[in-house]
Amino acid sequence: MRPSGRKPDQMRAVSFERNFSKHAEGSCLVKFGDTHVLCTASLEERVPPWLRNAGRGWVTAEYGMLPRATGERMRREAASGKQGGRTVEIQRLIGRSLRAVVNLEALGERQISIDCDVIQADGGTRTASITGAWVALHDCLKWMEARSMVKTDRVLKDHVAAVSCGILASQPVIDLDYLEDSAADTDANFVMTASGGIVEIQGTAEKDPFSQDEFQTLMSLARAGIDELVGLQKAAIGA
Questions:
Q1: CATH code of the domain in which 232 resides
Q2: 2 located within any domain
Q3: Residues 96, 152: Cα–Cα separation, whole Å
Q4: Where does the secretion signal sit in this chain (predicted)?
Q5: ∠101-51-140 over CA atoms, to 5°?
Q6: Rounded CA separation 192/175 (Å)
Q7: What DSSP string describes 79-91?
Q8: Alpha-carbon gap, residue 193 to 158, rounded angstroms
């Protein structure tokens, strides 16, 4: 039995609250159980210096956790003067995941910056961030389309979502919360598109190595989970 009482293939309750932020061109409060992340998408009429006059845009991401997102207060990274390695890794992952489904040429010489701020953490913050960030990005593009700046269906090529899977007490399970993640023998994150494309897989054996058969089982769990998340994304945007 999982600590959460869920079945091995059962995800936590997932929800998307669009237009959460008054000022951002696109925003979404995403909840994976008790993990809550505010994702905002901001349009900037510029691109990084290395992309100037290249005829294409850019999508980038920043990630952070509020001091009381966890059980004990964490010091703000700004107070230490630099971001931690985990933060940099996660925000790069979010950016890569979104760019995988964006036609940067159709975006034009503009940048969309996605900010993922973890309000409350209970495992799976990076997967929730990616999944919610797609909704915020979609709404930013719709904001632009309403002003005749782009055509959303030309810029956004597909859905992208992410989910964690792991092996807990010899049982493959999906969407681990913190208690499960901290006790899992194997932990993996899967980023996939609605059409079945694989963007990234991160997998680690915490103790004994996992087998190819176990990996295939995790992959199957993840695929089903991604399909469920994409369905929820579509319902949220009214597609």
A1: 3.30.230.70
A2: no
A3: 19
A4: none
A5: 45
A6: 14
A7: HHTS--HHHHHHH
A8: 7
Task: Give me the pLDDT at residue 138, please.
Answer: 98
Q: What is the pLDDT of residue 155?
A: 97
Please tell me the distance from the alpha carbon of residue 59 to that of residue 98, in angstroms, as a whole number: 7
Q: What pLDDT does residue 80 have?
A: 82
State yes or no: 125 annotated in a binding site: yes
Encoded tokens for 133: 């960030």
- The answer to whether 172 and 60 have CB atoms below 8 angstroms apart is no
Instruction: Establish whether 126 is an annotated binding residue.
Output: yes
Nearest to 167 by CA among 185, 149, 152: 185
pLDDT digit string (tens) for 105-120?
999 999 999 999 999 9
Closest CA to 130 of 191, 84, 178: 191
| Cα dist from 164 to 64, 152, 203, whole Å | 19, 29, 10
The closest alpha carbon to 133, from 17, 217, 27, belongs to: 27
Query: What is the layout of strands, in order, in the sheet containing 171-174?
Result: 171-174, 160-168, 186-193, 198-205
Tens digit of each residue's pLDDT (9 = 90 or more) over 139-160: 999 999 999 999 999 999 999 9
Q: Which domain holds residue 178?
A: 14-237
Contact 106, 15 (CB under 8 A): no
